[in-house]
Specification:
Blueprint (H helix, E strand, L loop, with lengths): L3 E2 L2 E2 L5 H17 L3 H15 L5 E3 L1 H7 L2 E6 L9 H14 L4 E6 L3 H13 L2 E7 H6 L1 H9 L3 E5 L6 H14 L4 E3 L10 H9 L1 H12 L6 E5 L4 H7 L9 E9 L10 H4 L1 E5 L2 E5 L24 H8 L3 E7 H15 L5 H13 L8 E6 L7 H5 L9
Parallel strand pairs: 4-14, 5-6, 5-8, 6-7, 9-10, 9-14, 10-13
Antiparallel strand pairs: 1-2, 3-4, 11-12
This protein binds pyridoxal-5'-phosphate (PLP).
Length: about 400
């Protein structure tokens, strides 16, 4: 596994963390590729998570835009998003390593929910770190996490969102490093986490490739939203070597990239260090990490996975930013045309259709990764007012 992608990646953690990361690397390479681990995971993904997820031809949306649009239905997974693919795999790895407890950070609550679910299933103790602002935005997920038997640790430092929750989770992990496994929820963090998460999420792209082949289609463009970047890299990974496929990552522009209220890391950030990795970071002139804003709690992150920082640098993936208003319009359009309520995060990817489609000269095949469902977002959608700052 690559430890760095160009200058991005690495391990920027305190001394005590290094040995745990070494142990993790060794365990992952040894266990995750064994036959019994693979078959156990495969059966959990099939019968518990509900994979494979459909690649759905969105007929009405296609008619609306004049191109063939397919949705990869990660929203149909158990717990409502792609997060479970990775959470269940890492929890299984933790169990095989003999760990008794798993911990996780969460923003929108989807990763907390997925991790608490995996912990319940596999009989592991579980603690979730969540910022107080996010706890308020995503109350239903917090209640679900508690009902599943996990403890929720409220974090009230800084902006009280995902960044602070991640910092607290890393700290707690380092304090209990012998018995505890840290289940990271996105393709971020020190090596080998981004690689592990990419490995476990790459099932999305693998399935998509097979499903396209089966119907005799080839994707011209694939679009996914990018917070830390796990659903996007999970979708893109299998297509990276096929240069005929245009890969597009969509970040959150919040109130606009020319305001201080956005989370458009690759569009506006610079090289820096956050949460144990060297990557692109939103920062001020002193190198302090900037506060971020987006209507979507899941994209509200001032860093991005190092593999995306690299793919941005080498221009293999193009990254754009979609603002809150455009996102809500796209969400409503999918509801009306297809009867699917998408997550606010996924709606950023959908919103890019509005920009891309009019520029295409020939009829194209476009796949959008529908990373999650919108049930958790009903409150944010219904109370949305243009230009308002949430959290
Ligand atoms: C968490 C989440 C995201 C953002 O995380 P990535 O790691 O960038 O995929 C996107 N969509 C949904 C539905 C989420 O829950």
């Amino acid at each position: 596994m690559n430890r760095y992608y160009a200058e991005f990646g690495g391990q920027f953690v305190p001394e005590t963390g290094i040995s745990a990361l070494k142990e993790l690397e060794k365990a992952f390479l040894k266990i995750a590729f064994q036959k019994d681990f693979k078959s156990e995971l495969k059966s959990l993904l099939k019968d518990y998570v509900g994979r494979k997820t459909p690649l759905y031809y969105a007929k009405n949306l296609s008619k609306h835009y004049g191109h063939d649009i397919y949705l990869k239905r990660e929203d149909l997974n158990h717990t409502g998003a792609h997060k479970i693919n990775n959470a269940i795999a890492q929890a299984l790895l933790a169990k095989k390593m003999g760990k008794k407890k798993i911990i996780a950070e969460t923003g929108a609550g989807q990763h907390g929910l997925a991790t608490a679910t995996a912990a319940a299933l596999l009989g592991l103790e579980c603690e979730i770190f969540m910022g107080e602002t996010d706890v308020k935005r995503q109350e239903l997920n917090v209640q679900k996490i508690r009902l599943l038997g996990a403890k929720v640790n409220l974090i009230n430092t800084g902006l009280k969102t995902l960044k602070e929750a991640t910092t607290a989770a890393i700290q707690s992990w380092i304090n209990e490093i012998e018995t505890c496994f840290y289940v990271i929820g996105s393709a971020v963090g020190p090596y080998p986490y981004p690689q592990i998460v990419t490995h476990f999420q790459s099932i999305i792209g693998k399935e998509t490739k097979k499903q396209l082949k089966k119907i005799g289609k080839k994707a011209d463009y694939i679009i996914a939203c990018v917070g830390g970047g796990s659903n996007a890299i999970g979708m893109f990974y299998e297509f990276l070597n096929d240069k005929t496929v245009g890969l597009i990552g969509v970040e959150a522009a919040g109130l606009g990239i020319d305001t201080p209220y956005h989370a458009a890391t690759l569009t506006k950030g610079r090289v820096g260090i956050i949460h144990g990795m060297k990557t692109i970071v939103l920062q001020d002139d002193y190198g302090n990490i900037l506060p971020v804003h987006s209507i979507s709690a899941g994209l509200d992150y001032p860093g991005v996975g190092p593999i995306h920082a690299y793919l941005h640098k080498v221009k293999r993936v193009k990254y754009y930013a979609i603002n809150d208003d455009e996102c809500i319009n796209a969400l409503k359009l999918l509801c009306k045309l297809e009867g699917i309520i998408p997550a606010i995060e996924s709606s950023h990817a959908l919103a890019y259709l509005e920009k891309l489609c009019p520029t295409l000269k020939e009829k194209s095949v476009i796949v959008v990764n529908l990373s999650g469902r919108g049930d958790k977002d009903m409150h944010s959608v219904l109370s949305y007012k243009k230009g308002e700052i949430y959290g």
